[in-house]
Design a protein that fits this description.
Helix content is 39%, strand content 19%. By secondary structure, it is α+β, with helices and mostly antiparallel strands.
Length: 354
């Protein structure tokens, strides 16, 4: 992630060990703009939460790079020919890959905005899930990578909580004995119906090879864990996939944003740059101001960061929360129906489920 650093740098006594939610609430109360760095000691991983006027608009996780080109292909928003054409201009792994796809007319900005928002919510949820971490805030640091429209801290916490509950309810349909990070789900060979086949289902089913864990299958498609669990739930409920015996091999890095907080094994460069503390030797160039501008005629919003205009669809946070509540209720109902059917089937064979 490309970051612009302003004049102020953190000092050692600026770091505090507090729940991440508390640190974000302080930034909300002061309407701060900048970057909150979160250092999680047990995993040795860092995250950077970018805020504008106390609201979160981007989250960057160490050891995780969002495979934007792969994700666009998994949703059939771009095909391989389009990706190859764009890749002649910019690498597939570059954060601006989606933006170039929009500027060349190959991708709708609303579709890109939805993917950015999913990434931010997944990453923010993982960072908020860690109990305590060392945090410090630096004003005048901005990013233009994988941004969504700023989400208020209170709304963000509620959305993350609802997503976590929905994921837990959906995962109960898959299994109650394992975690997406080590559970292997394999395709059964039952084909998806042509008239109800979403491209994401096809991509996920193809990634469930009996060797990958659910998280690793998500990484193979560019999905978040929340998306992968939702898809795995649908595939298992429909008989297209089933849980395999055994435990998957752990990955070296983070397969999904939600894995933040677990220890990772990565190859570090021989001379990794150290985090600078204290005042810089020479003053940095002034950091440009951030602003939010409404473009009502196009139903879009422009986030102007350091002179770069990033277009995103306007986000209806209340609507998103209500949608999450409905999806949570649907997932819980689906899980209850499947458990009841399983109980009935087992009772016919004089077996009881506890």
């Amino acid at each position: 992630m490309r970051i612009r650093i302003g004049r102020r740098r953190p000092t050692s006594d600026a770091a505090l060990a507090v729940p991440v939610a508390v640190a974000l609430e302080r930034l909300r109360d002061t309407q701060a703009s900048g970057c909150l760095t979160v250092s999680h000691g047990p995993s040795g991983s860092n995250a950077r939460v970018f805020v504008l006027a106390g609201a979160v608009y981007a989250v960057a996780l160490e050891h995780y790079d969002f495979p934007i080109a792969l994700r666009l292909c998994s949703s059939a928003l771009l095909d391989e020919d389009a990706c190859a054409a764009i890749a002649m201009t910019i690498p597939r792994e570059h954060p601006d890959f989606g933006r170039v796809a929009v500027s060349t007319g190959r991708l709708d900005v609303a579709d890109l905005g939805r993917l950015h928002q999913e990434l931010v919510l997944a990453a923010a949820g993982a960072v908020l899930a860690v109990d305590f971490a060392v945090t410090y805030f630096e004003p005048d640091i901005v990013t233009g990578d994988f941004c969504t429209m700023p989400i208020g801290v209170d709304a963000l916490v509620e959305m993350v909580s609802l997503r976590r509950e929905r994921q837990a309810a959906g995962w109960q349909v898959v299994t109650a004995d394992a975690d997406p990070s080590d559970c292997i789900v394999a395709a059964t060979g039952r084909a998806l119906p042509d008239d109800a086949c979403a491209p994401e289902l096809t991509a996920m089913l193809g990634a469930l090879d009996g060797v990958r864990t659910v998280d690793q299958a998500a990484a193979a498609c560019g999905f978040t864990r929340a998306e992968a669990v939702h898809l795995a739930c649908a595939l298992v409920a429909g008989g297209h996939a089933s849980v395999s015996e055994g435990v998957g091999e752990p990955s070296r890095g983070l397969d999904v944003p939600e894995a933040f907080g677990r220890p990772v094994t990565v190859d570090e460069p021989a001379h990794a740059p150290a985090l600078e503390l204290g005042e810089p030797d020479a003053p940095d160039e002034p950091t440009a101001q951030c602003a939010v501008v409404d473009l009502d005629a196009q139903a879009l919003t422009a986030l102007v960061i350091d002179g770069t205009v990033v277009l995103h669809p306007a986000v209806d946070i209340d609507g998103e929360i209500e949608l999450l509540r409905r999806e949570l209720a649907d997932a819980e109902e689906q899980a209850s129906v499947i458990r009841a059917r399983l109980q009935q089937a087992l009772e016919r064979h004089d077996v009881h489920v506890h």
